[in-house]
Structure formats: C-alpha cells, structure tokens
Amino acid sequence: MFFNTVDFVIFLIVVGTTITIIKNRSFQHLFLLAASYFFFYYSSNYLIILLLFTTIWDFYLGKMIHSAKTIQQKKALLILCVGVNLGILGFFKYADFAIMQFNFLGKEFNIANEIPLLFLTLPIAISFYTFHSVGYIVDVYRGTVAPCKSLRDYAIFIAFFPQLVSGPILRAGHFLPQLREKFETAQAGSKLYLIIINNKNLKIALTMIAFGLLKKMFFADNIAPLVNDVFANVIGKGSLEIWLATIAFGIQIYCDFSGYTDIALGIAIMLGFKIPINFNKPYFATSPSDFWRRWHISLSTWLRDYLYVPLGGNRKSNARTYANLITVMFLGGLWHGASWNFVIWGLLHGAYLSGQKMILNKFPSLQNNSFFKTKIGKIFSILVTQYFVFLAWIPFRVENINEVSYSMQKFIFLDLDLHLFTNFVSSHKFPALLVLLFLVLHFISYRKGNIISSISELKMKYWVLMIGGTVFCILFFINSNPEDFIYFRF
After folding, report:
1. Predicted confidence (pLDDT) per residue in 126-172, tens digit
2. Is 336 a known active-site residue?
3. Residue 86: closest CA among 254, 452, 334, 294
4. Class of residue 461 by CB neighbours under 10 A (exposed 0-12, middle 13-18, buried 19+)
5. Which candidate, 280, 264, 230, places its Cα nearest to that of 393?
6. How far out from the chain centre does Cα 340 lie?
7. How wide is the angle at C-alpha 25 spanned by C-alphas 456 and 61, nearest 5°?
8. Among 175, 196, 217, which residue terminates a domain?
9. pLDDT-based confidence at residue 241 (cuts at 50, 70, 90)
10. Interval 298-308 mean pLDDT
C-alpha cells in the first residue's frame, strides 16, 4: 500500500476517524498496532511473519539482556540477538548476491559447479525495522534505554505504519516515551489521549502531506522519464545529456525520498506523534560531512552511533579514522542494496569523508578560514560539494559497472555536443522545465527557512487556496505511469 494511492487515502481516513471517535486508550493502542500490521500485510502478505518474529524475539531478548547478572552474559545475549537480526536481513537481502559472486569466482577458477539462485522475495521495510530493532537492543545493553515493559508498545515502535517502509529510522528512546507519557496522562484522568487530532496539528499535518505528494507526484514522477531515457541505455550519450540526467536524478531521488518523509511526518503529527526529520536542504551542504548531516539524517546518525563510534570513531590514529569512515560508508552503501553499484556509491562517500578529514588534519587553518564564511566562499563550497555528490549519484542509479564507468567519465571529461543536447531537451521539455523549477523553489526554501510551517500558519482562506493549488498541480500533471517510491526497494 503506497502513500500515493487511493487505497492508502481510504486506509488513512478510516484509521484517523476511528481513533478520533473511540477514545478508549487501550483500544487506540491496539487499533494503531492492528492498522500498522494491516498496512504491512497489504503489501507483503505472509512475510509479516518475519516482522512478528523480529518483534517478539527482540522484546524478550531485550529483557534478558537487562536482567543478565554479568557483563559476559549481556555481551553473549547482545551478540546472539544482533546476530539473528542481521542474519535474517543478510539472508533475504544478500543471499542471491553472495551466490552470484561465488558462481563468478567458480567460473573464473574452474573450481565449483554453479550454485542455483534462491530467488528470495525481499521483505518490504526489512532494512528499516531491522535497524530499529538493533538500535533498541544496543541501547538496552548500554543502559541508555530501559527495556520496554509492554509488548504492545514495543510492537507499535517497530511497526508504526507512517515510517515503516522507508523511515525515518526511529530510536526507542525517542518514540517509546511518547507512548508511555500519553498512556500515563490518560490514566491520570486528563483529556489528553494517546492520539490527539486538533486543528493546529491537522493543518501542519495536511500541509506536510500535500507538499510530500507534490514532491513525489509532481516533481519526482514527471522527472523520471528523462532520467530513465538516458540511463536505460547510457552508452553513446553525450556529456551534457548525462549531466542533465544526473542532476535530474539527484532531484528525483530527493523529491521521492523527502516527499515520503514529509508524508510520514505529516501522518505522525496527525496522530499525535513526533518522528525525526530526515532531510535539511542537503543540496546546500558545504562539505561531505555537512551533506550527511542533511541527507537521510536518521541513517547517518544511526551509522555514527552504532557503527562508527564502536569502531573507534576519530579517537584512534588518523589512519584508523579514515579506515572507519570508509568502512561505515561501504556498509551504508551495501545497506541500500545487494549490488556493486551501491558498494561503489558508499565507497565514494567514504572517500569524500576521509578526504575531507585528511585535508583538515593537514591544513587545520582551513576549518576557520574567513574566505569560506563569505558569500562567495559558501557558494564555492556548495558547488564543489554538490559536484562530488551528484557524481556519486551515477553509480547509485546505474547498475551495470561498464555503464557506470562510461557515465562517470562523461561527467568528468566533457564533450560539448550542443546539437545532440538541444534535440534531447526538446524531446523532454516538461521534465527539463521541472528541473529548473525545482532549483528555483529549492533556493527560495533555503532562503526563507521552514516554508511548510509558514504556510500552515496562514489564515484559513489563504491556507485552503495554497493547499488547493498544490492538489491541483498534483492531479493535473499526474504521470500516467507513476514510479514506486525509490526507497521501497531497500
């Protein structure tokens, strides 16, 4: 069930209406959990068994870790619990990829018969709910989060439907207290129930949902044909076409993914919950590290807290720090998918981060250089950073390694065939226009700050006009062949 379908609209209306009308706190808990499981089952059928197993397994192992008498017992239970979680993820996501690599090596060295592929179905959201679970277990082990007392509350944390499929990645320490606080307040006799839907929340929520759908259905889906036309058969394309397609893909994936996040945040607000933002104008980042403070924030902070820091972070030698950065981004790339192009994408970003660290270690005065604080210096930093960010989008989008190599060469070493480029643009006028429109609007949003908040605070008649205009753009320019949300694949 996708956010941009009539099925989901009906589902959301039913959920919101039911929870608003029936205010019994226990019913609201149970109904929210049932709705989340239905949402998952609607798309994944029997694979919901994995979600249920993960939930029950981690809930009880978390209790056992907390009550273990010795540090050795705690470590053993931690390794067992995390190992099972990552084992399930690895089996379903990487088994066929690993078999393909073994088969390739077997052919090269003539040492083995070909192993048949398993052709496993990738469970939707497995990468996200696995990280929810692992984060929770590690936090319980560290003592930063108390083990959840209610299986129902823990199940809601794992399966909360607005963010289940594509994040943001939730932290137990942030989400579970919201359930407990509302539950305890309701027990105390307050009129504050588990779910709160009021006019202010509803305006903010509907504004976020409308703009999320605008990003996805107006921008991302209508830009996709230009991107697909180039990268479906990139060999022979010129540099300018590849440049345009790369920029278009960067905009497509941002609008697609941040659009999903906006919808998820809007639904959560509508239901009375706060979940973390996942994007903060990443295409105005001034360095590779700044980019990862702005892009897929919940993933980058998860990788930092649960992988980079345990590996030693920057507390060891410089060489160890560079190796940690590359390792973390390599695994971050592999988390996105079982394919070498994602490995290349992750390694590129690892090289960017370690390269930045290396330069600052060599020339520490650059950290506070006055030039980079000027307007020209910031523009220079943004342009250089985004050049490398968009260069890395090529292997993220293109799976064939030969085509990745060709595309990156054309991106770096320009051939300026204006005639071919003009013909290409003339056949994709609307997507090209949307690329320009996005760049203008993105710049305006960067200068004006939180536009969604400003719009939601408009007087009702102006707010209705704004949301109505947004819905009109979505419906009038809807793509007859819409794309799935890109991060649903991960």
Report:
1. 999 999 999 999 999 999 999 999 999 999 999 999 988 888 999 99
2. yes
3. 334
4. exposed
5. 230
6. 19
7. 100
8. 196
9. very high
10. 95
Residues 237 and 352 placed together within one structural domain of the fold: yes
Q: What angle do CA 126, 129, 135 make, to 5 degrees?
A: 130
Give the Cα separation of 95 and 89 in Å (integer). 10
Side chain identity at 326, as an amino acid letter? I
Question: How far is residue 131's CA from residue 378's CA, in Å, rounded to a whole number?
Answer: 35
Domain end: 196, 224, 242, which one? 196
> What is the structure's pLDDT at 186?
44
What percent of the chain clears pLDDT 90, i.e. is strictly above it? Answer: 59
Can you give the pTM of this predicted structure? 0.91
For residues 44-51, give the mean pLDDT: 89
1 found inside a domain: no
Residue 71 lies in a domain: yes
Q: Are 453 and 204 in contact (CB under 8 A)?
A: yes
String of b and e for 235-270 (b: at least 16 CB within 10 Å)?
eebbbbbbbbbbbbbbbbbbbbbbbbbbbbbbbbbb
CA 450, CA 262: separation in Å to the nearest integer? 13
- Would you say residue 140 lies in a domain? yes
Residue 329 has pLDDT above 50, yes or no: yes
**Residue of 29, 296, 336, 349 marked active site:** 336
DSSP tally for the chain: helices H, then strands E: 20, 0
Domain with 382 in it: 200-489
3-state secondary structure of 429: helix
Lowest-confidence range among 110-124, 147-161, 324-338?
A: 110-124
Of 423, 438, 427, nearest to 240 (Cα)? 423
Query: What integer pLDDT is reported at residue 112 of this predicted model?
Result: 67
d(CA 486, CA 490): 8
The domain total for the chain is 2
Q: Is residue 292 within 8 Å of 201, Cβ to Cβ? A: no
Note whether 312 and 410 are same-domain residues.
yes
Asked whether 37 and 206 are in contact (CB, 8 A), the reply is: no
